[in-house]
Amino acid sequence: MDHQRIIRDVTADLPAATTALDACQRFVTALARHTPAAISLLLQVQGRLRCVAATGAWQIFSTVPPKTGIVGRVYATGETAVVPDVAADPDHLPIRPDVTAEICVPVVDPAERAVGVLDLQWSAPVDLQLWRATAERLAARKARRQRPADEIETDAAGESGTDVADEVEDSE
């Protein structure tokens, strides 16, 4: 796997994006050309993690409370999660029933504050340590190009999906 090529391919088209949502979608689409993983990019918007771009899954959670699931844990702690067996992680929120492994990395702003997460989930064997390095570098580059959350919110208005908050609150 050529990490430099992946990073170059994923970030090359970002300057052509006309909106923050467009940049996020271009980012995820380009990354999907290099891995069969289900990919989600969630950004903090009005106190919640909002999925602004995704591929590889037939269902997504449109929003997730910031401390819910692996994505919430990564967002809250700023620490990358490498999960070789998602069934063994009590924080895993299943999107696809066949997912076996996950890497979730924080997307941080220039002041090192978490603004979101990049989440990759696989259903086949994968070298998680190699993908961790690539995902961390990509998330860092995405953050440098990130536009304000209010622009993301405006761009993403009206997008639909499942809100995990009600499901989580009902189970507590």
Automatic annotation (TrEMBL):
A matching Pfam family: GAF
UniProt superkingdom: Bacteria
Coiled-coil regions listed in the entry: none
Chain residue ranges for the region called Disordered: 141-172
Bilayer-crossing regions: none
InterPro entries attached to this UniProt entry: GAF, GAF-like_dom_sf
Residue ranges occupied by any GAF domain in the UniProt entry: 19-152
Name of the protein this chain belongs to: GAF domain-containing protein
Organism listed in the record: Micromonospora azadirachtae
